[in-house]
């Protein structure tokens, strides 16, 4: 049986699909993961994936491409699967993707859908209220005939050693950036946390992407080690795996930390529900006002002056949360 799993969102979303992908891989002969370009680096880290098919859908992402008949035709020609699982967030419709898969000749398609699917779905599943995204994906897989084969935690391929980046000895990672501004702690607060953690005797590594080098340099300052722009996805997994704790917002490194088994201090802006997107399967401390006026707005830019849901969190709060998680470990 050739199976296709789709998750067309970002890096973190694809990591959360990992347990469901393993469930499919336990029963299928070949598993293709269809994802967008932002999720592709995560897809290549997932156990159980035999092939990664990259396509940016016009109905997803921060900057969706224009609808192109030729582009869709080329995708249809590349899809070769008997059965498919369409994984979406709780607020997304799977039906545009289902139409493409049906045109590609996929015979059995399963998805969570609140909308009437007509002939587009063979299994119209209803997700449990308030389910975490990883649990919802596992529930759908099981309903489609792919029961969970293991503990269902997030996983990636064994990370490479990162000693050349981290240096010797214990350390804490602080990742100050986020996929959208509404989910980021302020640079000033992040820099204060680095100073406070360093004063408490911790070595602090500051991570970020190539476009975040100015941010990571500022946050690291004199007291942290700046790794901004120096870690692709595999290297970042190695850095996070060696950390005692990872401090980050509701963004991809939180889920990558969970996938390598590292506790997380989660600076969680409530623009999406924490019950669905919190760090999964590892010890964590959730910081941030979950009842702030921005709650459940899915805003990309903070709609409240001063970003109070996160900026009321202090460096002392973060340092205390780090000590709590290290003590539990």
UniProtKB/TrEMBL annotation:
Keywords: Glycosyltransferase, Transferase. GO terms for molecular function: glycosyltransferase activity. Gene3D superfamilies: Glycogen Phosphorylase B (3.40.50.2000). Its EC number is 2.4.-.-. It comes from the Bacteria. CDD domains: GT9_LPS_heptosyltransferase (cd03789). It holds the Pfam family Glyco_transf_9. This is Glycosyltransferase family 9 protein. It comes from Streptomyces lancefieldiae.
């Amino acid at each position: 049986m050739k199976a296709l799993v789709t998750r067309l969102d970002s890096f973190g979303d694809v990591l959360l699909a990992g347990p469901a992908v393993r469930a499919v891989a336990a029963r299928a002969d070949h598993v293709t993961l269809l994802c967008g370009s932002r999720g592709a680096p995560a897809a290549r880290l997932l156990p159980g994936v035999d092939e990664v098919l990259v396509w940016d859908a016009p109905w997803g992402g921060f900057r969706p491409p224009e609808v192109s008949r030729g582009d869709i035709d080329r995708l249809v020609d590349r899809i070769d699967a008997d059965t498919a699982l369409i994984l979406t967030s709780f607020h997304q419709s799977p039906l545009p993707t289902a139409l493409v898969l049906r045109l590609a000749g996929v015979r059995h398609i399963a998805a969570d859908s609140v909308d009437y699917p007509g002939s587009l779905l063979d299994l119209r599943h209803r997700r449990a209220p308030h389910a975490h995204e990883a649990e919802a994906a596992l529930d759908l897989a099981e309903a489609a005939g792919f029961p969970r084969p293991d503990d269902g935690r997030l996983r990636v391929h064994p990370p490479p050693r990162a000693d050349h980046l981290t240096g010797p000895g214990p350390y804490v990672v602080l990742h100050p950036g986020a996929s959208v501004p509404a989910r980021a702690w302020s640079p000033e607060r992040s820099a204060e946390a680095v100073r406070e953690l360093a004063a408490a005797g911790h070595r602090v590594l500051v991570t970020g992407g190539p476009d975040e080098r100015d941010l990571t340099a500022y946050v690291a300052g004199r007291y942290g080690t700046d790794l901004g722009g120096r870690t692709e996805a595999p290297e970042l997994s190695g850095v996070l795996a060696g950390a005692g704790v990872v401090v980050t917002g509701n963004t991809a490194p939180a889920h990558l930390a969970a996938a390598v088994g590292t506790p997380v201090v989660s600076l969680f802006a409530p623009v999406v529900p924490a019950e669905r997107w919190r760090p999964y399967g590892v010890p964590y401390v959730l910081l941030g006002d979950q009842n702030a006026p921005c709650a459940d707005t899915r805003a990309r830019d903070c709609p409240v002056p001063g970003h109070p849901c996160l900026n009321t969190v202090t460096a002392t709060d973060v340092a205390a949360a780090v000590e709590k998680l290290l003590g539990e470990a």
